[in-house]
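Q: I'm writing a short explainer about Alcohol dehydrogenase for a general audience and would like to include a description of its predicted shape. Could you first generate the structure from this sequence?
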Amino acid sequence: MSLPEKQWAQVAEQKGGPLIYKEIPVPKPGPDEILVKIRYSGVCHTDLHALNGDWPLPVKQPLVGGHEGAGVVAARGELVKDFEIGDHAGIKWLNGSCMACEFCKQSDEPLCPSASLSGYTVDGTFQQYAVAKAAHASHLPKNVPLDAVAPILCAGLTVYKGLKESGARPGQTVAIVGAGGGLGSLAQQYAKAMGLRIIAIDSGDEKKAMCEELGAEAYVDFSKSQDLVADVKAATPDGLGAHAVLLLAVAEKPFQQATEYVRSRGSVVAIGLPAGAFLRAPVFNTVVRMINIKGSYVGNRQDGEEAVDFFARGLIKAPFKTAPLSDLPKIFDLMKQGKIAGRYVLDVPQ
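A: Of course. Here's the predicted structure. Afterward I'll give you a sentence or two in plain language.
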């Protein structure tokens, strides 16, 4: 596969943007890396956080964002043995890790202090060609559509990992906060495939319709509810509250409410990352009800394989809309306004 010298990309040259759609050089893979010709890239709220520099983690400047890239291997380093040219591959948030620290040795690679992050510490997938460490790239079956699988590489993996971390068992109830967004639409499907009962929490009639179609047994509209805690508890079969809560929201308030409607011995799993937000819970209530509060980050390599396998078996059908790479600024504007139901996937020019 012959490679061009230049490619089109969305580039943020400074914190907060603006995004500039321009030509930049095509990167070259290192000895243990693959170069993927990106066909599609999902757009995640994390990409907006990266653009704005919202988190206390240094971000690369200038930056090509994106971390849900699906495409075809165009080149590989001399040490790469498990990818061939022409294979389908996915580039995830975790672009690489040291593979030698305590966390990497225990399959907690996302916690590696030397981890490289796609579209944050290294250039990501909002470009025609992107590089990733071969050990962390995902093998994608060739019968899987690349546009539909792109959101699985971050959104799907992240919520699947969160559901595993919650400890919720088949037949139990999980409340998903932000159920109508990109993460939430996938969380509902993974939860259903894992045998869990779903209470969807979000706002708006379009999101309600989508959540009901995806299998939610109840929908609580926080913009209309007079007593969210009571409404969530009432939606559980025995009125005792959800066994687990997945917090996918991009605002702080839901993180303060969750311990009020999770049942005793339940788990509150924080996944969303609203800028400057804090988790707060009454100590007495947390102790005497034995509530488990934890964070869940992206999954490890095995979690990634499992998340893609759920999709490949037809158990996950992520709702998404497609737009050209050049439309990324418009999508970010819609994201800021909270007007996106499901996920946007960028069609990268070939």
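A: For your explainer, you could say: The mean pLDDT is 95.
Q: Perfect, that's easy to follow.
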